[in-house]
């Protein structure tokens, strides 16, 4: 059968919460970053779906998606750089190790 | 084309400076002192340039728009960056990657300019990221400090997370309204459940940037971890930029949801003031202390925003202007002390006025302004915010805000007390500060005293709204 | 005359002080500045009386108004009536005396005198401003100098007292602020202008909300029970001039505010709340007096007695008769002068004996007759001896309060009258213990008052006698103001 | 018409003395200050006599009635249109008489002090204080306005305080002056409230208007004042009773008398002036001032005056019999004599023959001023001679100080009411008045007069007889001319003052009142008086065991009387135990721990709360994200479902 908007929205929402769950639970910083990517991808799915099913006369959603992908890459780059730096100073990329700043 | 040049002047000038820096970096023939001097001059010119050849208009069919008020806001940010370049000269000179730092800072500033001028959600998103990601990198510039990288990591991760949430919200808005254009969205909004959800997710991003409770938790850690210059940039410039765009987004784009966001603002601003103050009470580290106090300040800004659009806008812009001077002065003093003697605890400041009267009095003035004590400008800023908020006539809200002023006074006085009253055998030794820094501090003090008393400044802002 | 001079002169003095380097110059500049203020106050008095004699019956004289934040309906609007003139005179006297007694301050002299002048600036501005915003502005200007004066130059548990004082006063002014905002928006005209607001009828339910806010807010300043606890600690920790300014000027800001803002703008609410005000003030009077009996430290004695004496101010305001309100203002003036002199004398004694414990002093009259004679005079003034200012004020309050025929106010008045016995008890116990009896041998070689102390004392004494011996001029000055407030009651 | 300037001078000259000596005395005048003050006072005395002469024999009388003249009046403090404190001068028989008495006695005391206080380092201050007192007293007696009286009332109070505490390094003196001030102050509160009541019910503070308003039954003020009743008595009665409380305080009536004996700590001439002749009779004067109101509008208040006066008279007389300090004996006798004056007023009525008591009271006031001042100054001379107040250090002084002895004897005879000395006439009139209007009081008075004679002669014999020759060998004279002259003058006064036809001048309504001499009536008092004298002679002329026996025989009562019936202890208990411990201490405690505690508690509470919530800032970036999302979703739910 032809998948409808709701299927896609369901998938994207699931993806969103999987990403959130990952972000909350994973110890490894890089993995957390990946789960953020999941969130962004779910957003992308949303945009595409809305664009295709509801507002197909304009292509705003499409462009948005492309830009999100680009930005995500940039963000990832900086994040990775920072994480490497963190590894230099902490000798680990375990989020548990980074609780010096608190209260 | 000509139009394009004038309307985008601030961004273009800034881009020019950034490229210049890039070339200098490649060429690397120039020492920090000279480069810093050059930059200070350039930034000053940039700031002054902001006053000429401005006219309202929009570009890229409404993606980019500018008005007199927006230009003024950009200039306030320019001024802040210029002051930063002066105030933290001590630190900059000893920084080996200074050009990069400035490049990042100016990129972020560029992002903020676009953010303020953005007329559409895509533009908004892009510029917001441009304004955020470099700051995260800046936060990491104390390469040898563990805390610095930790702070940077926290910043980049949580900001990525928050932008994820925001994008989710944006996507829902797009889904609900079918447009990402600021001028068209209000026409499509009807207050449906989906829109409420979308708005609140969207709002969460602002809340994150402005560090509104409960989205504030990253703030203190990042402030403490990152170098003082980055902290002050973060707490003054980026906050200011986001507040500016927040104003226009609320008053223009989400006008149909006004009832919703008024109640929302009341709740979060009370929470923000209370939590910020309560946390600031027990802080020992001066940066952390200022972080929480700035959170409380944001609470007050929200009180102002909750008011009617005219007075709300003008009072917020005015307050940001005041806040630039007071907060930068405070941070600068803290930095001057921290770079010479790694003293960042409030207790280290005890008996400081014996050895460093100048710094002590500037700090006192800045803190009084933050606490909203006359005749400093902070008094006027706070009072206008409260008056704007009171126009909706909810006494309880205003009483809570007013009582929070007392709590905040309490902890500001803690610092004053440490500096002036408590005894200490070995206070901080005499600190010699750069002439440029001293000049900037005097300028800040003058600003703190005068901005409020010279009422035409406020009237000018009012006239632009 | 142009009233902004009253703000400009302290301002210029302060700026000049900042520029100066050495301490002696600072002192003399401060003295000159305060002397100029005194002269100015007298000029003001003279012109004011001239105007009145020439038959100018306008409520407010010498109005001047400058644009200031017009978009908020704020204007730098100045003007005086008799009450404010009286207050300004009081301020001028206390300021110059305060500058004189702190002649020997060595620690951060410049900043010290700067703070004093700043405080006086706040007081003058407060008394002459007809715009609620700038009135509030000046009210808060006066707070931080007090904090620093106590915290930096004070003694005893100064940090604690300074904190307490600053926070409680700020709390008071926060309430005032909310009340002001309430009036600002309720009035319909978005204006802070006192005269404009007094013209229009503020809706009663707004009054019922705003009046308590304003009254309690200002009441904190003038030691309204139970918000008085900053008074004892603050006064006793402050340096001499600090306590003089606190009790002499800053407590009067509150009384003036209660009268000029709360009662004047919101007559209906004032009527409604009168009972509560009277009860609280009577409590303050008696309770303060009895608490004073138990104090051992001279400064605490005077501080607690200030609570009791300021109770008379609030009683007079609460009674809402013309005579009573006049009496309240007289009591403000009288108590200001008297308590300033009292603190000055305590300071002189402390500088010599290095103690303020009554029990540790005895027979000082033999060694420092001038100072102790002052102590006697001021003590007698505070227990209301005829010929000194206290008598005039208290009697006027009593007379005014008695004009209410109902039993409640009668009872209140009688209770208030009883306090004058208690006053006599604690004043005499302290004064006779310190002055009379065999001389404590450790005080064999004390020096009597120096020129500056003598001058300060004589200035204040002259004022006290001027009020006490020929009160009519002051009454004629004040009572028209009270008259206008009463007219609004009807 | 009276010459206003002269009358003003009478009052202001002493003030001038006070200001001059008070400010410059110690620097410039030194020992000459005594002379300066005395000469100033001499001048005003002369003026006072001149005024009296003018008033009584020239202009005072208009068709058979002495007028109340108000030659001078200045509005000093305007409360409200009707009510104002006026500084005025009222000239009527009483005030003129008082002018004479005050100036004359004060002059005597000034002169006496020249010798008595010589070689005292605070000589100028002493005279300054005397000047202040004289000024205030004169101002008091000429007051034309009830608040003016209160004004000077306080001033005499404070000058008495200063003079009692003159020897400020003696703790007993300090205690005494404090006590005197506070007790009278307490009474003054009554006076003050009384003034408020009267002012409200009469609508004025001016004596003449006030009396006019409150004594003529057709005025509204009168009607209202009588109508308005509180606890069963009319407002007016209350007001007058309160005023009388003030009067009783000044005049040392029971139970407010406790300050008077201790007040003897002051220099003896001061006691003579303030605590015998002038200030203590201010209360009597005040009641006399308001007499028409008492008599016409509030008889019940007047009765109170009568009984309090009578009781005080007897009470004091009994105590006086047991005291050993000669000044205290005199103090109690003063109290008793003032009791006489009081009940004389109390039993009197207004107008005509019935006003006898009023006249008698004023007459006794006049004569008493003479002989009591005389007695005190005599006692002063004795003390000056033996350097002690105690009877046991005296005895057999009649040879050593003849003049003192003689004058003192005259004084004793006068107070004992032995004809033809002054006391006899006045006392006899009082008794007559009492006899006519109130028998009970008459008997009390009679007993009192016998006691008076007894204790006065006990005093006399103890001082001047009782042992043959005084152990004091070196004989340094009984004081110079300056000390003897006043004694002699006062003795003459005490001897002959009685022959003045007083009723012709002073009477309740200003008309002439003929006070005849009733032989058959005066037998009883005189006989009793002589009896008292002889008993005293029998007991004390020679040293013997009788007094001890007598004391032992009625030991309980004697003890009680000796300890002044423990009134002081009662007061001490009330003040220390009740006021201080039950009110003062709790108040201070409440302030320290409750009110202040609350303030501190708010501060600490906030601190603690902020400490408890710090764990939200856990440092875990993931928990931050959780709060973030929870916040977003929470707000969303709030606004979608709860707060639409």
Explain what you see.
The complex is a heterotetramer of chains A (103), B (465), C (490) and D (644). Chain B is mainly α. In chain B, 77% of the residues lie in helices and 1% in strands. A two-stranded antiparallel ribbon of chain B has the order 1-2. In chain B, a hairpin with a 4-residue loop joins strand 1 (57-59) and strand 2. In chain B, helix 6 runs parallel beside helix 12. Chain C has one domain (5-489). In chain C, 76% of the residues lie in helices and 3% in strands. Chain C contains 19 helices and 2 strands. In chain C, a hairpin with a 7-residue loop joins strand 1 (61-67) and strand 2. In chain C, helix 4 (109-128) packs antiparallel against helix 5 (132-141), helix 4 (109-128) runs parallel beside helix 11 (240-265) and helix 10 (230-237) packs across helix 13. Chain D has helices at residues 4-29, 32-59, 93-116, 123-141, 146-164, 171-202, 207-215, 220-227, 235-250, 259-262, 268-277, 282-289, 291-297, 299-320, 326-347, 356-386, 402-416, 422-437, 439-464, 481-496, 502-505, 519-540, 546-553, 555-562, 567-612, 621-642, and strands at residues 61-62, 65-66, 69-78, 84-91, 229-230, 233-234. Chain D has a two-stranded antiparallel ribbon. In chain D, strand 3 and strand 4 form a beta hairpin. The longest helix of chain D is centred in the C-terminal third of the chain and has 46 residues, at 567-612. The N and C termini of chain D lie far apart (93 Å). Chains in contact: A-B, A-D, B-C, B-D, C-D.
Short structural summary:
Chain B has helices spanning 2-7, 9-27, 32-49, 68-87, 89-93, 98-117, 121-139, 146-177, 185-188, 193-210, 217-225, 228-253, 258-281, 286-305, 309-340, 352-355, 357-371, 377-390, 395-420, 435-453, 455-464, and strands at residues 57-59, 64-66. With 465 residues, chain B is mainly α. Chain B has one domain.
Oligomer: heterotetramer
- Tell me the count of domains of chain B: 1
**C-alpha Rg of chain C (nearest Å):** 21 Å
Mean pLDDT over all positions of chain B? 91
**Overall geometry of chain C:** globular
Q: Biggest sheet of chain B, open or closed, and with what strands and sense?
A: 2 strands, antiparallel
Identify the strand order in the major beta sheet of chain B. Answer: 1-2
Strand content of chain C: under 5%
In the sheet with the most strands of chain C, the strands line up as 1-2
Write the SSE topology.
The complex is a heterotetramer of chains A (103), B (465), C (490) and D (644).
Chain A: H1 5-25, H2 29-53, H3 60-90
Helix pairs in contact in A: 1-2, 2-3
Chain B: H1 2-7, H2 9-27, H3 32-49, E1 57-59, E2 64-66, H4 68-87, H5 89-93, H6 98-117, H7 121-139, H8 146-177, H9 185-188, H10 193-210, H11 217-225, H12 228-253, H13 258-281, H14 286-305, H15 309-340, H16 352-355, H17 357-371, H18 377-390, H19 395-420, H20 435-453, H21 455-464
Antiparallel strand pairs in B: 1-2
Helix pairs in contact in B: 2-3, 2-6, 3-4, 4-6, 4-12, 4-15, 6-7, 6-12, 7-8, 7-12, 8-10, 8-11, 11-14, 12-14, 12-15, 13-14, 13-19, 14-15, 14-18, 15-17, 15-18, 15-20, 15-21, 17-19, 17-20, 18-20
Chain D: H1 4-29, H2 32-59, E1 61-62, E2 65-66, E3 69-78, E4 84-91, H3 93-116, H4 123-141, H5 146-164, H6 171-202, H7 207-215, H8 220-227, E5 229-230, E6 233-234, H9 235-250, H10 259-262, H11 268-277, H12 282-289, H13 291-297, H14 299-320, H15 326-347, H16 356-386, H17 402-416, H18 422-437, H19 439-464, H20 481-496, H21 502-505, H22 519-540, H23 546-553, H24 555-562, H25 567-612, H26 621-642
Helix pairs in contact in D: 1-2, 1-4, 2-3, 2-4, 3-4, 3-11, 3-16, 3-20, 4-5, 5-6, 6-7, 6-9, 9-12, 9-14, 11-16, 13-14, 14-15, 14-19, 15-16, 15-18, 15-19, 16-17, 16-18, 16-20, 17-19, 17-20, 18-19, 19-22, 23-24
């Amino acid at each position: 059968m032809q998948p409808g908007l709701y299927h896609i929205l369901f998938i994207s929402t699931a993806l969103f919460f999987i990403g959130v769950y990952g972000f909350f639970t994973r110890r490894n910083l890089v993995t957390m970053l990946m789960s953020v990517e999941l969130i962004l991808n779910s957003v992308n799915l949303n945009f595409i779906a809305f664009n295709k099913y509801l507002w197909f006369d304009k292509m705003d959603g499409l462009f948005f998606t492309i830009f999100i992908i680009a930005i995500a890459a940039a963000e990832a780059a900086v994040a990775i750089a920072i994480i490497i730096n963190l590894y230099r100073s902490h000798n680990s990329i375990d989020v548990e190790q980074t609780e010096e700043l608190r209260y | 084309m000509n139009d394009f040049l004038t309307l985008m002047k601030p961004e273009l000038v800034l881009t020019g400076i950034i490229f210049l820096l890039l070339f200098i970096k490649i060429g690397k023939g120039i020492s920090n002192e000279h480069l810093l001097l050059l930059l200070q001059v350039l930034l000053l010119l940039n700031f002054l340039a902001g006053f000429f050849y401005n006219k309202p208009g929009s570009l890229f069919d409404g993606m980019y728009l500018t008005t007199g008020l927006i230009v003024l806001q950009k200039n306030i940010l320019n001024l802040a960056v210029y002051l930063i370049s002066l105030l933290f000269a001590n630190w900059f000179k000893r920084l080996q990657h200074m050009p990069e730092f400035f490049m990042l800072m100016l990129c972020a500033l560029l992002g903020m300019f676009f953010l303020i001028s953005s007329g559409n959600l895509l533009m908004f998103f892009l510029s917001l990221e441009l304004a955020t990601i470099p700051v995260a990198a800046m936060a990491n510039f104390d390469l040898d400090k563990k805390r610095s990288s930790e702070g940077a990591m926290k910043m980049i991760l949580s900001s990525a997370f928050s932008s994820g949430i925001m994008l989710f919200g944006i996507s829902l808005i797009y889904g609900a309204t079918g447009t990402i254009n600021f001028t068209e969205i209000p026409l499509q909004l009807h207050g449906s459940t989906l829109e409420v959800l979308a708005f609140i997710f969207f709002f969460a991003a602002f809340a994150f940037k402005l560090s509104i409770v409960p989205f504030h938790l990253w703030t203190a850690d990042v402030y403490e971890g990152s170098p003082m210059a980055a902290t002050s940039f973060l707490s003054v410039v980026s906050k200011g930029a986001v507040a500016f765009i927040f104003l226009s987004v609320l008053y223009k784009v989400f006008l149909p949801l006004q009832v919703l966001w008024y109640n929302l603002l009341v709740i979060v601003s009370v929470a923000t003031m209370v939590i910020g103050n309560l946390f600031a009470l027990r802080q020992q580290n001066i940066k952390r202390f200022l972080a929480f106090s700035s959170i409380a300040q944001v609470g007050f800004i929200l009180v102002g925003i909750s008011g009617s659009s005219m007075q709300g806008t003008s009072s917020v812009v005015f307050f940001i202007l005041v806040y630039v001077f007071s907060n930068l002065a405070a941070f600068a003093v803290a930095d001057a002390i921290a770079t010479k003697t790694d003293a960042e605890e409030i207790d280290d400041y005890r008996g400081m006025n014996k050895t460093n009267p100048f710094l002590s009095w500037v700090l006192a003035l800045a803190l009084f302004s933050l606490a909203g004590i006359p005749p400093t400008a902070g008094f006027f800023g706070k009072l206008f915010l409260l008056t704007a908020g009171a126009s909706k006539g909810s006494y309880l809200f205003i009483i809570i805000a007013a009582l929070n002023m007392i709590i905040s006074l309490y902890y500001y006085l803690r610092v004053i007390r440490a500096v002036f009253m408590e005894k200490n055998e070995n206070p901080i030794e005499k600190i010699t500060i750069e002439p440029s820094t001293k000049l900037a501090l005097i300028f800040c003090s003058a600003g703190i005293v005068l901005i409020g008393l010279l009422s035409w400044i406020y009237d000018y802002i009012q006239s632009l709204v | 005359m142009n009233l902004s001079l009253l703000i400009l002169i302290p301002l210029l003095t302060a700026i000049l002080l900042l520029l100066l380097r050495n301490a002696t110059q600072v002192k003399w500049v401060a003295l000159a500045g305060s002397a100029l203020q005194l002269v100015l106050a007298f000029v003001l008095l003279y012109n004011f009386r001239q105007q009145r004699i020439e038959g100018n019956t306008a409520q407010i004289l010498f109005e001047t108004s400058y644009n200031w934040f017009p978009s908020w309906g704020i204007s730098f609007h100045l003007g005086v009536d008799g009450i404010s003139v009286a207050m300004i005179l009081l301020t001028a006297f206390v300021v110059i005396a305060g500058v004189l007694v702190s002649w020997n301050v060595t620690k951060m002299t410049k900043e010290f005198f700067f703070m004093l002048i700043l405080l006086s600036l706040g007081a003058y501005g407060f008394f002459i401003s007809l715009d609620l915003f700038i009135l509030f502005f000046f009210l808060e200007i006066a707070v931080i100098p007090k904090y620093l004066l106590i915290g930096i130059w004070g003694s005893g548990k100064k940090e604690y007292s300074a904190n307490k004082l600053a926070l409680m006063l700020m709390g008071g002014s926060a309430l005032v602020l909310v009340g002001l905002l309430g009036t600002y928006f309720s009035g319909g005209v978005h204006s802070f202008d006192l005269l404009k607001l007094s013209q229009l009828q503020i809706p009663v339910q707004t009054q019922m909300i705003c009046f308590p806010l304003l009254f309690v807010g200002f009441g904190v300043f003038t030691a309204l029970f139970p918000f008085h606890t900053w008074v004892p600690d603050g006064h006793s920790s402050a340096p001499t001039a600090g306590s003089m300014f606190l009790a002499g000027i800053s407590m009067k800001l509150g009384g003036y505010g209660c009268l000029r803002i709360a009662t004047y703008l919101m007559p209906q609410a004032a009527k409604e709340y009168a009972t509560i005000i009277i009860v609280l003030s009577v409590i303050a009077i008696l309770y303060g007096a009895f608490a004073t009996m138990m104090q051992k430290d001279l400064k605490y004695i005077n501080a607690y007695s200030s609570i009791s004496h300021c109770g008379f101010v609030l009683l007079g305001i609460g009674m809402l008769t013309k005579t009573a309100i006049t009496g309240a203002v007289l009591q403000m003036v009288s108590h200001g002068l008297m308590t300033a002199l009292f603190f000055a004398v305590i300071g002189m004694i402390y500088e010599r004996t290095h103690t303020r414990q009554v029990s540790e002093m005895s027979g000082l009259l033999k060694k420092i007759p001038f100072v102790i004679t002052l102590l006697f005079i001021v003590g007698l003034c505070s227990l209301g001896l005829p010929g000194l200012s206290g008598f005039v004020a208290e009697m006027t309050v009593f007379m005014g309060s008695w004009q209410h025929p109902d039993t409640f106010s009668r009872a209140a008045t009688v209770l208030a009258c009883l306090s004058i016995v208690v006053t006599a008890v604690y004043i005499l116990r302290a004064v006779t213990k310190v002055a009379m009896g065999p001389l404590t041998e450790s005080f064999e070689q004390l020096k009597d008052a120096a020129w500056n102390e003598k001058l300060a004392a004589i200035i204040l004494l002259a004022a006290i006698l001027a009020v006490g011996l020929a009160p009519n001029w002051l009454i004629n000055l004040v009572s028209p103001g009270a008259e206008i407030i009463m007219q609004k009651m009807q | 018409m009276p010459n206003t300037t002269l009358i003003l001078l009478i009052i202001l000259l002493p003030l001038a003395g006070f200001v001059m000596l008070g400010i410059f005395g110690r620097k410039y005048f030194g020992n000459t200050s005594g002379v300066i003050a005395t000469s100033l006072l001499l001048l005003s005395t002369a003026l006072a006599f001149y005024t009296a002469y003018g008033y009584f024999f020239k202009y005072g009388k208009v068709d058979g009635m002495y007028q109340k003249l108000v030659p001078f009046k200045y509005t000093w403090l305007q409360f409200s249109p009707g009510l104002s404190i006026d500084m005025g001068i009222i000239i009527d028989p009483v005030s003129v008489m008082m002018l004479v008495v005050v100036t004359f006695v004060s002059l005597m005391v000034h002169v006496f002090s020249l010798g008595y206080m010589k070689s005292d380092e605070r000589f100028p201050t002493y005279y300054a204080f005397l000047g202040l007192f004289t000024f205030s007293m004169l101002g008091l007696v000429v007051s034309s306005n009830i608040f003016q009286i209160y004004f000077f009332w306080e001033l005499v109070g404070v000058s008495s305080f200063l003079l009692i505490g003159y020897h400020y390094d003696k703790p007993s003196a300090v205690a005494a002056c404090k006590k005197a001030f506070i007790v009278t102050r307490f009474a003054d509160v009554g006076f003050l409230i009384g003034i408020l009541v009267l002012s409200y019910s009469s609508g004025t503070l001016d004596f003449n208007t006030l009396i006019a308003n409150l004594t003529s039954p057709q005025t509204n003020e009168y009607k209202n004042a009588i109508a308005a009743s509180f606890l069963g008595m009319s407002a007016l009665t209350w007001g007058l009773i309160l005023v009388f409380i003030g009067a009783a305080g000044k005049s040392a009536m029971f139970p407010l008398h406790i300050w008077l004996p201790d007040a003897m700590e002051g220099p003896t001439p001061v006691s003579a002036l303030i605590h015998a002749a002038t200030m203590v009779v201010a209360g009597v004067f005040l009641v006399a001032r308001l007499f028409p109101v008492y008599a016409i509008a509030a008889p019940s208040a007047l009765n109170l005056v009568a009984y309090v006066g009578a009781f005080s008279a007897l009470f004091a007389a009994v105590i006086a019999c047991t005291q050993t300090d000669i000044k205290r004996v005199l103090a109690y006798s003063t109290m008793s004599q003032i009791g006489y004056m009081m009940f004389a007023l109390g039993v009197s009525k207004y107008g005509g023959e019935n006003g006898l008591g009023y006249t008698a009271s004023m007459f006794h006031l006049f004569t008493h001023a003479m002989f009591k001042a005389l007695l005190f100054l005599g006692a002063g001379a004795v003390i000056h001679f033996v350097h002690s107040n105690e009877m046991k250090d005296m005895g057999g002084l009649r040879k050593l100080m003849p003049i003192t002895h003689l004058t003192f004897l005259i004084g004793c005879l006068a107070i004992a009411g032995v004809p033809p000395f002054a006391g006899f006439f006045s006392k006899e009139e009082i008794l007559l008045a009492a006899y006519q209007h109130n028998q009970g009081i008459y008997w009390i008075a009679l007993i009192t007069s016998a006691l008076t004679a007894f204790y006065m002669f006990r005093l006399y014999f103890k001082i001047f007889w009782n042992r043959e020759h005084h152990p004091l060998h070196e004989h340094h004279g009984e004081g110079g001319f300056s000390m003897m002259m006043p004694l002699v003058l006062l003795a003459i006064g005490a001897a002959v003052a009685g022959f003045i036809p007083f009723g012709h001048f002073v009477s309740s309504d200003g008309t002439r009142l003929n006070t005849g001499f009733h032989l058959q009536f005066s037998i009883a008092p005189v006989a009793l008086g002589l009896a008292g004298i002889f008993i005293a002679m029998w007991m004390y002329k020679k040293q013997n065991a009788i007094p001890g026996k007598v004391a032992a025989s009625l030991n309980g009562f004697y003890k009680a009387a000796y300890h002044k019936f423990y009134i002081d202890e009662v007061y001490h208990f009330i003040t220390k135990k009740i006021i201080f411990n039950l009110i003062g201490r709790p108040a201070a405690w409440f302030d320290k721990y409750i009110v202040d505690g609350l303030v501190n508690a708010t501060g600490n509470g906030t601190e603690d709360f902020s400490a408890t919530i710090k764990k939200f800032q856990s440092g875990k970036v993931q928990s931050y994200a959780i709060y973030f999302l929870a916040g977003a979703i929470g707000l969303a739910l709030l606004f979608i479902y709860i707060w639409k």
